[in-house]
From TrEMBL:
Pathway: Purine metabolism; 7-cyano-7-deazaguanine biosynthesis. It catalyses: 7-carboxy-7-carbaguanine + NH4(+) + 2 ATP = 7-cyano-7-carbaguanine + 2 AMP + 2 diphosphate + 2 H(+). The lineage of its organism: Bacteria, Pseudomonadati, Pseudomonadota, Betaproteobacteria, Burkholderiales. Belongs to the QueC family. Pfam families: QueC (PF06508). GO terms for molecular function: ATP binding; ligase activity; metal ion binding. It comes from Cupriavidus metallidurans. Keywords: ATP-binding, Ligase, Metal-binding, Nucleotide-binding, Queuosine biosynthesis, Zinc. Signal peptide: none annotated. GO terms for biological process: tRNA queuosine(34) biosynthetic process. Its EC number is 6.3.4.20. This is 7-cyano-7-deazaguanine synthase.
Amino acid sequence: MKSALLLSGGMDSACIAYWKRPDLAINVDYGQKPAEAERQAAQAVAATLGIPLELVSVDCSSLGSGDLAGASPGVYAPSSEWWPFRNQLIITLAVMAAVKHGIRELMIGTLKSDGIHADGRPDFVMAMSRVCQLQEGNIHLSAPAIQFTAVELVRHSGIPMDLLAWAHSCHTGNLACGQCRGCNKQANTYDELSDLAC
């Protein structure tokens, strides 16, 4: 069964790319502020692993909110980076690209900690998978790391640190701000990995 990975260029999807070695990686620029850096990170990871990369670009920035859009968080925002229906949007764009390649499984980089968002929970993944399977192409959606924390995923995947160093996790732009939830998560992950290595 041919598989694809939604490769954002962040730590989590980079780890899954190394661990699962999909047949195809898909990077989506939906108008988010860090799109260029995410794309460059995804290109570096895919090239290193020899995985073909499909680039998708659709500007939905006018629909965004929060850090990823460079705007104030929306009224329902559970955190500063919340973008309404973001995962539903990028999954839909990714399966649109995947279906022409005969892909039957699309993997996403959702982790245990992503449950703060409704679209980061197991019931959402199952519901979106059902929607994708109901349509032509019968693509199954999976979140292979949904039971892991970021540190657990890094360790389980076995990704080399020099490959993980390509990851771009900042929510606010193409240069790491060092203050957003994405930057803090990346720094905390490295700190915890360093502590475990001692």
